[in-house]
Write a structure and sequence with these properties.
This protein is an alpha+beta fold. Among the domains are: 3-140, Neuraminidase; 541-609, Transcription Regulator spoIIAA; 626-714, Roll (Pdz3 Domain); 737-853 and 888-923, 2-enoyl-CoA Hydratase, Chain A, domain 1 (Alpha-Beta Complex), CATH 3.90.226. It has a six-stranded antiparallel β-sheet, with no helix packed on it. Strands 42, 43, 44, 45, 46 and 47 form a six-stranded antiparallel β-sheet that branches. It has a five-stranded parallel β-sheet with strand order 48-49-52-53-57. A hairpin with a 4-residue loop joins strand 34 (445-450) and strand 35 (455-461). The protein is globular, with a radius of gyration of 33 Å. It starts with a strand and ends in an 18-residue tail after the last helix.
């Protein structure tokens, strides 16, 4: 497994002090979070290695994070948070004592570097110099004046950062939220308008009023979110309406009469707000948090009812009808299926919705058991008036009998309007018996919205998920559905239901959106809007101040603990916001936000994205999937990684059929350019990734007998090298155990980890036991599926006439299991060994895990697409105590990853795990019960 080292040599060059970190587990939240007071097992201790014999010693550690080892004289200096705030320490090799040298108690020392007699470090945004001889430090006054062009006000194109959209009542204009401003764009004639023009505020979720004269949106211009009502021209100052709580609000929906708005907050509440008075009323609260689904809500055509779906106690969703007149909700589905996406027919007779009877396993959205569980939904309608017949009654097809005069009148009559101004009739008694299936094949359906009277739209997942969604249109009159638009990501309807705004799944951001009529099928690209014209004046400094407050407020509103782990969150804001005026680059702001988040003392506090940082184009450098050594002044191939050429993600350039390159060959030329040391080998491969590249290789450095081969370099070797590590471990376990133990490595507890377990565990079912290696596990979901499979017990056997006897269950390994853990396994990689240990499946071998089990479930992005997590999911034990977070999972058998042994080609943790597995096998061998003798059913008892 690749590892990264940071450290320094002793003055005589015979020893090195280093901090050892796994490159397999260095995500943003390690690099960008401040780890104030954090005591997880993530960071390795500092080691001192004698290079002559590779012997090592470990610096004394006080359950702390020790970083940046620096060697001056006979002393190793380093940064440690052992007294909570990170300060500079010294370890004196002669006395073997550790001494604290600085005593900062407000901000951590973030990094340090040493010269011959001094150490420079950054703290509180200033550079400090520590004099080794005097033991004193002082702040260095540095004055640097730069043009900082990225901090100047500038025009920015914003089509690539559109987040919210809605269509005007007749579909002549669309409203968009882009980079915190509200724009409207014409379908054909006219120009775009920016209604807000505020770099220092975040406006979002625009929605048109039913008469088209106004728009509503949310804005935090006051410091907290408010509801804004503004005219469509953007010329008048919008009206601000205070919201009922300090929270993040979203999904506003106007009532058809224009008197009220629906909205929901991040605390699972659904509200209705009276536009005239500004008074808000809570309709309902969801039962459970589910990051995969919001509350689905829709108004009735007469504005007197709200249909919505939410979780009930079973974690399935039911459809409810809220009566505005009564001020109370009524459940109309029985929650024996998962019912979502309710929508009233435009004529008011029906309520449409989607429901699934196989959604149950997916309610465990946090668990791996929910993976590979396809969901099929069907369409239903509820007949709202008790006296309304089913639209699906059998039709005889007879000619109607009526007087001629009446027929003439009937032919001359005007068709009924698509909408009704009369009050909707909803008979709640017996409504469950008036729920009918709509003849639409069950499939992966979602996002049902009502179209013109007697029609509705819904999306369907296409077989190729990358192709986007198919939008279908169903007609009650015709009793049939037809494809309407393929390859979309989302859609919304105009108020009169005659136009539709769609977002295409592919293409440039400025060309993905379009407006089409709802009367006939369309294609992506029709009615395209000109969004490339959207631009706004961005004042970076005003935006940075807004983003900082947004990030701080996100933590306040989303963090799982309203007490903020004891931090005075207002004081934290005041402490760090004082540094915002000194921010000169978007990266500086990210650094400051990460430090602020660190005050929560929680493991999953990290930036969700860099935001609008000036882009740097990475170099295209091709790689051959090989290790090289320098011999005779040239580069010689020391090792070729074989990969899996049938797997596109593990293609090995030098091991493909017909590529006659072997270990020991010299690489002499790349595309005709001579290659020789000490020139940087990789400089010859610039621009070659994914392109045919001609190599000259030979057995001799002189080029005698050399040959030309054409290969296609790859852009990344991580997959090849990781697979090589996994396969080497599997072979080693097989060898050390005499073929008795399987080996399975789990890179994470998300999709790739699920795939790795399914592939490797069941492919080794002939083994008697298994080593489950979750070192460097990145986490993801909770690995209940893996624990359940490991904890399977045999319950009998099945015999057939031919072939061998099979256990029941057939799938499984029923002997002992041992799990490998280390400091670089965290999050779901903490939960897995916790559950493994709780089930008493087997021993844990290695080192204490990272200790991060307060997870994050998603937060709204800041104006420029950046943001920070607010860990919102915390774990506690069956004993009612907070567990794992900031503690990690301790091994039953502690084994260091001893560098001395590693350099000799050993993996001490893996080897000890095999020993433990074999010892368990010896204590309790796997017993195979022989097939009984045949039964003679003819003899009498």
């Amino acid at each position: 497994m690749p590892r990264a080292f940071t450290g320094s040599y002793s003055p005589d060059g015979k020893r090195v002090a280093y901090e050892e970190i796994s490159t397999q587990f260095v995500p943003d939240w390690y690099e960008m979070s401040e780890w104030r007071h954090y005591r997880g097992g993530r960071v390795h201790p500092i080691w001192i290695m004698t290079l002559a014999d590779y012997s090592v010693e470990k610096l004394p550690r006080a359950n702390s994070n020790d970083i940046d080892p620096m060697w001056i004289g006979n002393t190793v200096y380093f940064v440690s948070d052992r007294n909570y705030t990170a300060n500079l320490f010294a370890y004196h090799l002669d006395t073997k004592k550790t001494e604290q040298l600085t005593h900062h108690d407000d901000f951590d020392i973030m990094n340090a570097s040493a010269g011959s007699d001094a150490i420079v470090y950054e703290q509180a945004g200033y550079v400090h110099l520590f004099d080794v001889k005097t033991g004193q430090s002082h702040r260095v006054d540095i004055e640097v004046k730069g043009d900082l062009p990225w901090a100047r006000p500038q025009m920015k194109k914003v089509a690539s950062i559109i987040r919210g959209a809605s269509l005007s009542p007749t579909g002549v204009r669309a409203a968009f939220e882009a980079r915190g401003d509200i724009f409207t764009v014409p379908a054909s004639q006219g120009d775009y308008r920016n209604l807000t023009r505020t770099s220092g505020a975040h406006e979002h979720s625009p929605v048109w009023s039913p008469d088209g004269s106004q728009l509503a949106w949310f804005s935090d211009a006051s410091g907290e979110f408010q509801l804004m009502i503004g005219d469509q021209s953007g010329l008048a100052k919008p009206r601000a309406i205070a919201l009922p709580t300090t929270a993040y609000y979203s999904a506003p929906i106007w009532s058809p009469d224009g008197k009220r708005l629906l909205m929901q907050d991040n605390h699972l509440d659904l509200w209705t707000l009276d536009v005239a008075s500004g008074r808000a009323t809570k309709i309902d609260s969801d039962t459970y948090y589910d990051p995969t689904r919001d509350i689905d809500a829709a108004w009735s055509p007469d504005s007197r009812w709200v249909a919505y779906s939410r979780n009930v106690e079973s974690h399935l969703r039911a459809v409810f009808l809220y009566s505005v007149d009564e001020g109370k909700p009524h459940q109309i589905t029985d929650a024996m299926s998962d019912a979502v996406s309710p929508a009233f027919d435009a004529a008011g007779k029906y309520l449409y919705f989607l429901a699934s009877t196989d959604y149950g396993p997916r309610t465990g959205w946090l668990e791996m058991s929910a993976l590979d569980r396809p969901v099929r939904r069907s369409v239903y309608l509820a007949v709202l008036p008790a006296n309304e017949p089913s639209p699906f009654l059998p039709e005889a097809g007879d000619e109607p009998v009526r007087p001629i005069a009446d027929a003439t009148v009937a032919l001359a009559a005007k068709p009924r309007s698509d909408t009704t101004a009369t009050q909707l009739r909803v008979d709640l008694d017996g409504i469950s018996q008036r729920i009918l299936p709509v003849p639409v094949p069950a499939a992966d359906l979602s996002d049902l919205q009502a179209g013109p009277a007697g029609t509705f739209f819904y999306t369907e997942a296409l077989p190729n998920a990358a192709a986007g969604l198919r939008l279908n249109r169903y007609s009650i009159k015709e009793h049939s559905a037809m494809p309407f638009l393929d390859g979309i990501r989302s859609y919304t309807l105009s108020g009169d239901r005659k136009k539709l705004l769609y977002q295409g799944a592919h293409g440039a951001p400025e060309s993905r959106w379009g407006i089409v009529g709802t009367d006939k099928p369309a294609k992506v690209g029709e009615g395209a809007l000109n969004l490339g014209q959207l631009e706004m004046l961005v004042d970076p400094r005003a935006e940075w101040a807004e983003i900082f407050k947004e990030a701080w407020r996100t933590q306040r509103d989303y963090f799982y603990d309203p007490k903020m782990h004891g931090a005075n969150w207002q004081s934290v804001y005041e402490k760090y916001s004082a540094l915002v005026p000194y921010v000169g680059h978007r990266a500086d702001l990210g650094y400051l936000i990460a430090m602020t988040g660190g005050e929560l003392t929680v493991g999953h506090s990290y930036l969700t994205g860099p935001g609008d940082e000036p882009e740097e184009q990475p170099e295209n450098v091709g790689l051959l999937g090989a290790d090289f050594a320098v011999e005779n002044g040239h580069y010689r191939i020391a090792h070729i990684y074989s990969g899996e050429n049938w797997n596109p993600e593990l293609r090995a350039p030098l091991s493909a059929p017909g590529i006659h390159v072997a270990e020991g060959d010299y690489l002499l030329e790349v595309n005709g350019r001579p290659v020789a040391a000490p020139a940087n080998l990789y400089s010859f491969f610039q621009g070659t990734a994914g392109h045919q590249t001609t190599l000259r290789v030979g057995k001799s450095a002189t080029g005698e007998g050399s040959r030309l081969v054409t290969v296609v370099p790859i852009a990344n070797e991580d997959g090849l090298r990781t697979r090589a590590w996994v396969e080497e471990n599997r072979r080693k376990v097989d060898q050390l155990s005499g073929g008795k133990l399987a080996y399975v490595w789990l890179p994470n507890t998300a999709g790739p980890g699920y795939t790795a377990f399914t592939r490797y565990f069941y492919a080794q079912q002939e083994k008697e036991g298994a080593i489950i290696d979750e070192r460097y596990n990145h986490g993801g979901l909770v690995a209940d599926y893996i624990v359940n499979e490991l904890d399977r017990k045999p319950m009998g056997y099945f015999a057939t006439r031919d072939g061998r006897v099979s256990t029941s269950p057939i799938a499984g390994i029923y002997g002992p299991k041992v799990m490998l853990i280390n400091e670089s396994a965290g999050s779901g990689g903490d939960a897995l060994p916790y559950y493994f240990h709780l089930r008493q499946i087997g021993p844990l071998v290695g080192m204490r895990t990272w200790g991060g089990l307060v997870g994050t479930l998603g937060t709204p992005p800041t104006i420029d697409g950046g943001g920070i997590t607010a860990p919102s999911l915390a774990f506690y034990s069956l004993q009612g105590k907070w567990a794992v977070e900031n503690e990690g999972i301790a091994p039953d058998v502690e084994v260091e990853y001893d560098p001395t042994q590693v350099l000799k080609g050993h993996d001490p943790q893996l080897e000890r795990a095999v020993q433990e597995g074999l010892a368990l096998l010896k204590q309790k061998p796997v017993v195979h019960v022989a097939r009984p003798a045949p039964i003679d059913r003819t003899s009498k008892p």
